[in-house]
Amino acid sequence: MGTTQLESVQEPKYWHLKTVLSEALDSDFAVGEILPNERELAARFGVARATLRQALEQLELEGRLQRRRGVGTTVAPPRVGVAVSTAQHDWTGGADEAWQPIGCTTATAPAPVLAMLDVESDEPVHIVRRIRVTQGQPVAAELLYVPSASVPELSAIESSPSAARARSVVRELHRLGLDGQDRSVELGSARADDAKELDRLPGAPVLVVTTRYLAAGGTAAVSVATYRADTCRLTFGDSGDLEISHPGQERHAS
Amino acid sequence: MGTTQLESVQEPKYWHLKTVLSEALDSDFAVGEILPNERELAARFGVARATLRQALEQLELEGRLQRRRGVGTTVAPPRVGVAVSTAQHDWTGGADEAWQPIGCTTATAPAPVLAMLDVESDEPVHIVRRIRVTQGQPVAAELLYVPSASVPELSAIESSPSAARARSVVRELHRLGLDGQDRSVELGSARADDAKELDRLPGAPVLVVTTRYLAAGGTAAVSVATYRADTCRLTFGDSGDLEISHPGQERHAS
DNA sequence: TAGTGGTCTAGACCACCGT
DNA sequence: CGGTGGTCTAGACCACTAA
Predict the structure, then answer these.
(1) Could you tell me if B83 lies within 8 Å of chain A, comparing CB atoms?
(2) Nearest protein residue to D8's C1' (by CA)?
(3) Is A179 near chain B, with CB under 8 Å?
(4) What is the band of A251 on the pLDDT scale with cuts at 50, 70, 90?
(5) A234 chain-B contacts, CB cut-off 8 A
(6) Considering the entire predicted model, what is its pTM?
(7) Are B188 and B208 contacting, i.e. CB atoms less than 8 angstroms apart?
């Protein structure tokens, strides 16, 4: 009769811990503040460190915490909204929020990408490496696969430096007007090279945005961009191709 | 001199394990096949079970494996592409791929949702619960927040059954033509109730799609949909509002 | 060098599923 | 019931950062 939910102790410890910590973050901590270290937190809650870590991992996954080896655990700022639509493809460099070409190689594309490109399996394509920086922080690393056919004017300058050739490829790509673009988003884990660019450890959760750029009835290029899942909120502006506003830039815990 | 990368053994065991397993999955296993259990796999690779589990978790995160308590670990099929755009909002029920209204309550919206709605903090809104099913599998659970002002014709029938009222709200919502929709995607972990609908454990990784439906110059409704991150690939059709095709329905390991 | 988070171990018990 | 994955423990050592 009087038993108010005495049976529901089936809840795992780490899950309960996560809830408690989450509420503490809302009320007792400011953004950027550093938490006590894991060993102390574990002792304070009377659990093993592995259990405490399971809770912290969840909170980091949700973008509430940020952990750095050798430093500590800090309260993360709200996720930054990054626009993923309306031809950011048109900006090459410089601006405060833009893609920065890093380098360019020529090789055959991996199978999943090949399936989206209109090229032969053994035909090498340009692979441009770009980094997206927002508010001083790297948020995404991209591989842009561009068939030679899409940038016919690029034959002679093969021996130019990698970063310069990257810019050339992107510039040439601009000359093709885009007819549209297919896009998909899925969860992934950062490869070693992506992790390095994103200042994360390998295996960190990322949002993989695959974009197929359509031009002249075919696939002009394919982009595979990996966004930091802990710090990013991808925004899409479907409002009738109007100017995209910056919707939820400010959002706080409540 | 002749040392070819002898120093790079800094790679964590679980990371190397993941790579080895991933390649084994590509070559030696078919979709749906069950793997040896964790204790045996750990023994076979000469690592602790916790380490083996770390590798399996990564592979599950990437949608390569599916694990079910009491059953075992199976090879997952390729992720299913689910369209997240172009008014699926217009289908109420029945079709093979659609939202199924489950129930409806009336309460005040949580703070983040409130910030997107044009209502007072204490004003209750309709909260419609819907499930999205694709190919017989539940892929998403949604909470649709609808201010009373958006569905003015709905006053009298308060006492109808929950599922019926859910359908009514959605039907009424259709009468407003949509002017557009803002959408964002971020990583989250499944709440207990969502996890139940999605046939997953609480905390499972999900893609949270937040949509703001615009009508008559204001926000007509806000949808918060949580998609299973392990089985779903969200697709967006930006190709000039054309008919959306079903792009990567077939993709295999290579 | 001291302190942090990241990795790893070798166990134990529990919740769940099918038989 | 036996077997599976899920949770939890109490340690140990390592890689990294900053003072």
Answers:
(1) no
(2) A51
(3) yes
(4) very low
(5) 184-186
(6) 0.88
(7) yes
